[in-house]
Amino acid sequence: MQDTSGYDPNYVMGRSTAETDRLKRQSQLYDASTWQLLKDAGLSDGMKVLDIGSGAGNVSFIAASLVGGRGRVVGVDSNPVIVAEATSAARSLGLSQVSFRVGDINAMELERDFDAIVGRLVLIYLPDPSAMVRQLLDHLKPGGIVAFQDLDWGDGPIAVPPSPLLSQAWGYVKEMFQRAGLNNRMGLSLHGVFASAGLREPRMSLFAPAGGGADFDGYDYMASGLRSNLPHIVKLGVATEEDVAIDSFAERLRAEVVASKGAFALPTFVGAWSRKASV
User: Fold this and answer.
1) How much is the pLDDT for 12?
2) Do 129 and 146 meet the contact criterion of CB atoms below 8 Å apart?
3) What is the mean pLDDT of residues 116-141?
């Protein structure tokens, strides 16, 4: 049976140890694209950065690498367990310029002198992302940077040749997002979110790791995402645990792709950045 002890109805991926492990695996696959987004957006030495929905701290650590020792990065997340883990990781990495706070971003007292506000995979879980970005602008200096990266699930997986098992799993998650009231196209929707928040049209980029063969990390990553989504997939009536058969999913997907000498792309992350008006 699926462990739902860490289930959080406000975050469809859950708050379990397995989800924390998934975030670490995700970091290995996607961090390079996040670094490029933040660099292109203009993060540089000495800046003060606010990381929304900071999770295990990976985006905060990327920001720290760009702002250096003279800069400062503040990560905010509502989960005290993952904040404690991120704080410990920052300490072990010697990143004294990085700190984390526990709390609801809607209710927290935050400074109003940040040079940049960033986030990865956070706006998709909000009922009104434009309102949140508009609210966050109050904490940003004139001319400050806004940079977000979010998921664009799309209509189906990119795979050559087509993978029936991957398509089935993709469909489960897409349907779960829709029934949960989430925008599975949040990535490309960032353009409209920024505009509705009063920002200038953002610069945008798109990234998806891809591969095949027996050693591709994508099989385990897809399985970990499916596992974290499973409580909602079952609760919302999309599929049963028996339908998903999560414990064997990674190996079944690996066998299918390897047998066909195929390759596939993991879910797409879309990045967008803009700046607050100077006056």
Assistant:
1) 44
2) no
3) 96
Give the fold, CATH level 3, of 17-275: Rossmann fold (3.40.50)
Give every CB contact of residue 245 below 8 A, 6+ residues apart in sequence. Answer: 252
126-164 core/surface letters (b: 16 or more CB in 10 A; e: else): beebbebbeebbebbeeebbbbbbbbbbbeebbbeeebe
The contacts of residue 46 (CB under 8 Å, 6+ apart) are 67, 68, 70, 71
On the 0-12 / 13-18 / 19+ scale of CB atoms within 10 A, 48 is middle
pTM of the model: 0.90
φ/ψ of 48, rounded to 5, equals -110, 125
71 within 8 A of 239, measured Cβ to Cβ: no
* Proportion of the chain in helix, strand, coil states, percent, rounded to 5: 45, 20, 35
Rounded distance between C-alpha atoms, residue 203 and residue 275, angstroms? 10
SS3 of residue 262 by DSSP? coil
- Cα 204 from Cα 273, distance rounded (Å): 7
- For the segment 39-55, the average pLDDT, to the nearest whole number, is 97
Q: How far apart are the first and last CA of the chain?
A: 56
Extents of the domains making up the chain: 17-275
Q: What pLDDT digit, counting tens, does each position of 234-251 carry? A: 999 999 999 999 999 999
Instruction: Count Cβ atoms below 10 Å from residue 231 Cβ, excluding itself.
Output: 22
Is the pLDDT at 215 greater than 70, yes or no? Answer: yes
Question: Using an 8 Å Cβ cutoff, are 138 and 112 in contact?
Answer: yes
The pLDDT value recorded for residue 28 is: 87
212 Cβ contact partners less than 8 Å away, ≥ 6 residues apart: 257, 258, 261, 262, 263, 264
Contacts of 182 (CB under 8 A, 6+ apart): 12, 124, 125
